[in-house]
Specification:
Blueprint: H1 2-24, H2 28-41, H3 46-58, H4 62-75, H5 80-92, H6 96-108, H7 114-126, H8 130-143, H9 148-160, H10 164-177, H11 182-194, H12 198-211, H13 226-229
Helix pairs in contact: 1-2, 2-3, 3-4, 3-5, 4-5, 5-6, 5-7, 6-7, 7-8, 7-9, 8-9, 9-10, 9-11, 10-11, 11-12
């Protein structure tokens, strides 16, 4: 029996490597094909579902991706990366309570990364739960004090709490760490206008629009998506990336 399982595992490595190679070159359909072969050979192992879910996201087939991440959790209920991956898909779908429901067990199981805290914080913010959003922004900052997106989330939560001076400082910190972060200039301009600093507000607004002209048509309270906000992060959980939601899974975890 042990030999049979070992042989099965060896046979699955070929399709697994081919699937990873397909993901590397952006051939998500090919990756789905090869990861499906992995699943056929090892149907009770989370890895194949986790990787195929990432490929489905690359194809924009989010329902299938969610199903695969769910199956990965059934195979391995302690797989933190599967919860995190499903949370990011929920975020892409603006299913904010589902983000919280998945990000929390991901953190509890060890996926306590900047990205997961920011995802859950974004969901809290969308639900107007400013205190909890601020707490997650602060936890993310404890992990990476140089991450501009952590300060951006912190500033947005502080605006919600009505703490405008602190929000202004947070947006300034975001800009210092990422000088081309248009959203931070835009939000700081709104805060400065509310604080009566119209000259500084207008200067910030001009910079924001130079960096991203589309901001002129954007809501400024809670509207920005984390997928945009995490544009420069690099630590993807097992399964998918919060950047573009289609990177291959990290090796070493099921």
């Amino acid at each position: 029996m042990i030999c049979a399982l070992s042989a099965c595992g060896d046979r699955s490595q070929g399709p697994l490597l081919k699937g990873d190679a397909a993901m590397e070159r952006g051939d998500f359909g090919g990756a789905v094909y090869y990861y499906s072969r992995v699943i056929e050979q090892r149907p009770h192992v989370a890895q194949g579902y986790l990787k195929r879910g990432g490929a489905y996201v690359g194809l924009g087939q989010l329902d299938k991706a969610t199903d695969d991440f769910t199956q990965a959790i059934r195979c391995d209920p302690e797989n933190a990366g599967a919860y995190a991956s499903r949370a990011f898909v929920h975020l892409k779908l603006a299913a904010y309570q589902a983000v919280i429901d998945d990000a929390t067990p991901a953190i509890q199981r060890g996926e306590s990364t900047v990205e997961v805290y920011l995802a859950r914080g974004e969901a809290y913010l969308a639900q107007l739960r400013y205190e909890e959003a601020l707490a997650d922004a602060n936890r993310a900052l404890e992990l990476d004090s140089q991450d501009a997106d952590c300060f951006l989330l912190r500033g947005r939560a502080l605006v919600g709490k009505g703490q405008l001076e602190q929000a202004e400082s947070a947006f300034t910190a975001a800009i210092q760490r990422k000088p081309d972060l248009a959203d931070a200039y835009w939000r700081r301009s709104e805060v400065r206008r509310q604080l009566g600093n119209d000259g500084q507000a207008n200067a910030d607004r001009q910079i924001a629009l130079q960096l991203d002209p589309s901001l002129e048509f954007t809501e400024t309270d809670v509207g920005s998506s984390l997928v945009k906000g995490l544009s420069d992060t690099g630590n993807a959980p097992d399964g998918i990336s919060p950047l573009d939601l289609h990177l291959p899974a990290a090796e070493g975890k099921k």
